[in-house]
């Protein structure tokens, strides 16, 4: 996990810049992956490695394997080499490689991150919690937000490995968007307990802090694979409640139920169906917010791939259909 | 379909009042159903008929069948008879029956109806339409709302035969609730075209005006059964658009798409999946509003059946689970 | 929950005995349910109530409601009355009712219970745990079995509200049967970690101690409905592990995974699919043992209903098919 | 859409002929697609483009991009170049490219088309309609067939973008085959209304005239994607009926129902299940005729790929199984 | 199983006639079922038994149990008694009961049977077989039809216990209807091997001769339940082929495949999907013919229940939808 | 099928050895597949062929096609050539090819085979059968095991084409493992008929002897594709029983039922669901043994691919999840 941003040196060279440097020497910091030694015809060996940052990835070769320093997949390394083209694709023939020092780079340059300000979103989140009238729920959420380890993670965690909000700060961005929706819909449906609904927004994915790891790439932890964020989240909430004075038993059951049921269906990994109004409503909001973000990403991807704004996207697997950006169509 | 309310005489006696009149003579207006002549031991015949109003239903007998006047199932009749108890259930032994005259009763007394003011909701609906900035969509909706036949039906239609909002004015109530949700969520997601979304709210179920009949009971029409409200609605919109000047072709396709996809899944009868952001969002709002109303009805039913407010309801078939009213639980 | 058995007075009269007492006075202890006051023709009231014990249930009436003492559904009461027949069914016309005192009855007479000795099964369970070579898993299980509150509940809990092993001691009986299967199959598949597999057998349903209540009838608790035995069990294990010294983190994840995945499929309420050999194997054993018990019960029910041993049972809903007892067929 | 056939020059050279011209100069007309300019090592650019006709497709290069004339994907172009082999695949190195003039080619040479005579099938279709005894249905179908725009499209439309009958004239071929089946089965089942059944055969896919576009390739229109051929067809029928005198309302509902239900299941995009005998029967015939054609295509494809006639085909995705041509097997 | 018809005495009195005999003495032959002795208040016993024939069923009582002769459920008995009405339903108070002698009744009067002539249908079936040009298939079918035991059963077997064609002669009626469809469609699709397709029509359900029993009621045999008509049929065909000279191996596999795949889907009990054109086609024809017959039965049932010919039927469970008789609608 | 092992010459060179011979001449025996002649630039032809043995596969070229001798895909050939590297992959440029003589090789070297001794497993199987107390079942199994053709096949057949136990001797290995499980579980559940259960273990997949072919590769036979091992097995058992004296009819039905139901679900190709305790139990054991073997194979494959023992495998398609080897994890 990263700590506070803004204190690191700017990254000079991104993968997407490399097209401008064909046949030139370049120097830069990248994350290594798929490191492999392969045999040459003369039985000596060369290094094949992929370099990546948050803008993309490139295949590289270092022909003199004896010069390769000590590094592992996932490490940030500093490299120097010649950008050239092989079988119509760019690659870098590396001359030098060394492990980057911790202070030389900002992790945020290597993985995608939110376009919103984390500090602003964090303030927004705290503002919502401060507005609670239910003292027990406010105390529970403060116990999470005032826990420095959790707060540090919550400011940076992605909301997913690969689907919606899969970037640094994505979980926080998703939570804050949901809190806005909760505010609006709780007014529309007066039978809804606003604080309970908002508690679901803050805690429903809290287990992702331990389900996912987000260093130079996003991945599942062993606990994430075998236990999953829903059950991890339940355990985290049980643990915090155990430290609070006189948290009502019924309220505890309701909060756990909101986490357990937020995927809405058994086949989506929820061991309980939503059985209270707040759980039914929250399941819709959570799913909706994810889908809205998925559509934004797909429209951006289609545009990047050269589709006209009034064309349908290709088949979107996550939604099992192609999509159409209404804005593009209405403007033509 | 009913015309304007408030001009009819008050109904004096409701089915739910009858327990107070056991062993007494009563007179009142009710809707007839399940009318049948049965043989007595002496081979003469008697009449068996059910009488109903919006509060319930009761089995009745008229032992002298020769006195039975001319009426059909679905007619409102005026009856006189003795309330008695047979095999632990109340019934009325009828002495007199006659067909009620049109001016003698208010249809609204015989079927469930909304607790909100229809005039107020109608004004709210018109207010939303007046706020449109898209002149084409505004013109389309005005074409519907200014059509006296449609307006008359839309003020009274139920939203369903038996599930959510199954009462006079239910469709209008559902539309107005959706328009409120559209206003809120269109602000939350700036990529959403507010007027297009609201057009879906007004028109998505417009085909129910011809799918359902709502006289003294709610039922499907033949067209409703064999064509269905989605396709009827599409035809109604096509017909109105054909009368408008220069309605843009692309916009026409989007409006039709919103109607066709609003059930969200093929297996729910939508021949198209939502493929534009407004359709994706609207499907969530429509489904959510129906579920919130279903929960309200189920909690009311459970309370009427004597459940404590902090108890789970029985199995709710429409949602395939039991439900729990959070309010009841949190107050204990 | 009941405490130690064998110290209570024998129950003299069971529901199944009543056919021998038609038109006679009887006295006995039963559990009350469906208590209701109904109006008589003369507007006075009478009591309608169902009486039950572990052999069955009967409808009763007490015509003089003023004599009805103070009791609630679920209470054990002592009654005196006349067994008679009304519309071809037996009922009791009650003369006297009073609440039973705690010492007057054995709860076990009112709910079905295991035919095996609880003490023997408890010893068997402890013997298996003593045989563990993995000190961490042995310590974890001892923490459960040595917890007096848990042990007391575990000796009596049913394994289900209505399906397989739905009787007092049923959960323990199911666990002990599974431990036997674990012993056998762990030998057959040497890659299986026997102690880990047996830990699953003991803990997989431990959450049922809080999911179910078993007084005079079996029911779900609120926590059972909204949280469920899988998540309750996870929390109970997390809590016990937190009190142990140096329980290995990976082992903790594996134990939690075994509980979370033991239903084998998402649609059966498991939020995780079995991903380790012990979890895959355990899911088969658990499901198999439940099905074998279901078949035993169905064959007993069919026999009780007068089916010949070589006839198929009626449709068995829990297995979506009729069944045939091979033993009966092979002997003919 | 194409206009009348037979007036265009013969195409001299097809993609499948090119193997005979390796290392020779060729000249011919083809449809362009995937047109792209790519950078050469010396930073100048070359053209990469695919050329196709109804027999197949080939990758081409034009190394001097400055000679590339003005054309778009989908255009028919005349090219001259050298057929050569690169990495074991044929390609053409182009010397000259120019846009073809409308009179120089027959569109039918560039897309697959029916092997039957369109004029003969058209006459057959009209013969069936002339045989109707139901004057209303005959008038409705004549309104379609006498509409020059519709008739022109109906003579050439494919029945699908990619599955069964995906060729010029495919829809007409499918309709005529269905009419034959309707004639036979209406005799077998006397309760069937022959004219109503045949009306379904003619109109069930009429919306495909606007769902698909078939110029130099087959594709979905925007209306096709967002509205779909079922709903388009319903609107087309409503529009024609509105222009007819006194078309019976019930008959109108039945015709719409036949179109709406012809896919037979919700999950196949039918918003209504077949509820009348003609709809149930027609759904079987439509599905059967498509499957029979799919099998013919798959056997032809397997034979082209060198399978022996008595061998099973590879996995056929559209039917989720491999297939076997009985004829081939029985002859061995 | 019955042998030749027409040699038995006419049945004089049917269940449906009894309404005309209220309060009169009647005498007649009926099938007994649900025979039971029950206790009277004075502890003596009375007989309760249901009597049935192919037109319906009635509850009966014989108050003096000592007079009840020896008979079992399923037996045809001759009874004498008084038709009276109890709680608005007719019943017979029996005075005399005796077992009917084999020659006194025609089994066909007690179970529903085809309205077509069995002899005519048998001739039709043999005519189709005689028309075969494939000598092997003709020999195979003759081996079945010339087997007296099989022929006797095939002339009378129902096609199902409760669904379509559930009457004596129903299987033969279904086969003959299918043969007609085979003739028609084999002409329409020239790639179809007519004799092979017709072999499927004759043999696909041949296992029902051992799956079902049809004495005085229709039921499953043990072999029917545990093995099923598909596998029984395969074994019967294997057995007949083993007795034929030089039946080609490939043809044997195709015939077995047609039987195994005729239900079309795994979930309908076919262990193989149709993989040859004849199997694909036959699955449609078989399913279609069953559905057409189901619709006929449902329309007859609705009419019997008093529905108007232009009304939708109630929900038809076998087809999961209500149905509408087009004929009724078009005539109004 | 192979005959007795141990009499063939050792294979000297395996595919996996070739990396040690880069740029060297090699000679060896391999199975040919994908034999194809391709055109060279000068219009002469060269041979492309794949060579395989049980350790892997390699692409080869023979540039002088005139030297290619006569052989077909599936034949074992002896080749001589130079191992070289083309586009980073090894291939052999062949100089000589000739068909291998039957005595020159052991088929077992060319396809994967069990690591257990076939003779030992065969003895184990016979031991189990000798222990039967049910004389009919013992006679039935002896009829199979004493049939030399069946015994020869059963000793070598794989249990599948590609999934679990897909190697020579795999079916026997699977049977023997199941017999062990049957012994254990029949003791645990005393209501189980041990001999009947074991009969299922031996015969459930007996139809695979004709469903699969296993020469130099594993494949489906035509009968396997169109009839399937379940129905083939049923026919084989029917045939053997027909030759036995007085095999009880009910027992015959039970044995057939065990085969027909052993896949446990319709969608897995079982035309009958397990309806007797032995069938229910056997379905679990069969599925379990397959899954345990699948996991072993997947862990071996992951290890071969360089995964650490405590890492999750990649997605395992046959089980629709990734897997984790507990042993690896617990040892870290």
TrEMBL record, chains A, B, C, D, E, F:
Record's keyword terms, sorted: Hydrolase
InterPro entries per UniProt: HD/PDEase_dom, HD_domain, NA-bd_OB-fold, NA-bd_OB_tRNA, YhaM_exoribonuc/phosphodiest
SUPFAM superfamilies: HD-domain/PDEase-like (SSF109604), Nucleic acid-binding proteins (SSF50249)
Domain OB: 40-99
Superkingdom field: Bacteria
HD domain ranges (all copies): 172-290
Gene Ontology biological process terms, A to Z: rRNA 3'-end processing
Gene Ontology terms for molecular function: hydrolase activity; nucleic acid binding
Keyword RNA-binding belongs to the record: no
Pfam annotation, one family: tRNA_anti-codon
Family annotation (PANTHER family): 3'-5' EXORIBONUCLEASE YHAM
UniProt protein name: 3'-5' exoribonuclease
Organism: Acidipila rosea
Source organism phylogeny: Bacteria, Pseudomonadati, Acidobacteriota, Terriglobia, Terriglobales
């Amino acid at each position: 996990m990263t700590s506070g941003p803004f204190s690191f040196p700017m990254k000079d060279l991104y993968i997407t810049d490399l097209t401008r440097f064909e046949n030139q020497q370049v120097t830069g910091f990248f994350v290594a992956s798929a490191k492999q030694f392969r045999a040459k015809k003369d039985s000596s060996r060369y290094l094949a490695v992929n370099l990546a940052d948050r803008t993309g990835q490139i295949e590289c070769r270092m022909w003199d394997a004896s010069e390769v320093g000590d590094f592992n997949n996932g490490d940030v390394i500093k490299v120097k080499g010649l950008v050239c083209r092989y079988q119509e694709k760019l690659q870098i023939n590396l001359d030098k490689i060394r492990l980057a020092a911790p202070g030389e780079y900002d992790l945020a340059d290597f993985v995608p991150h939110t376009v919103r300000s984390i500090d602003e979103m964090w303030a927004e989140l705290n503002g919502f919690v401060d507005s609670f009238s239910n003292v027990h729920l406010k105390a529970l959420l403060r116990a999470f937000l005032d826990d420095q380890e959790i707060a540090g993670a919550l400011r940076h965690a992605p909301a997913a490995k690969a689907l919606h909000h899969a970037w640094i700060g994505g979980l926080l961005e998703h939570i804050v968007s949901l809190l806005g929706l909760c505010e609006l819909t709780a007014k529309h449906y007066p039978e809804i307990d606003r604080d309970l609904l908002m508690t679901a927004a803050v805690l429903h994915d809290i287990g992702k802090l331990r389900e996912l790891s987000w260093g130079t790439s996003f991945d599942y932890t062993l606990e994430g694979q075998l236990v999953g964020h829903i059950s991890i989240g339940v355990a985290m909430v049980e643990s915090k409640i155990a430290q609070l004075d006189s948290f009502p038993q019924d309220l505890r059951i309701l909060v756990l139920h909101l986490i357990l049921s937020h995927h809405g269906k058994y086949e989506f990994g929820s061991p309980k169906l939503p059985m209270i109004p707040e759980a039914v409503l929250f399941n819709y909001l959570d799913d909706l917010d994810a889908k809205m973000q998925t559509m934004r990403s797909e429209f951006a991807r289609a545009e990047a791939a050269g589709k006209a704004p009034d064309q349908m996207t290709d088949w979107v697997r996550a939604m099992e259909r192609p999509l159409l950006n209404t804005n593009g169509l209405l403007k033509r």
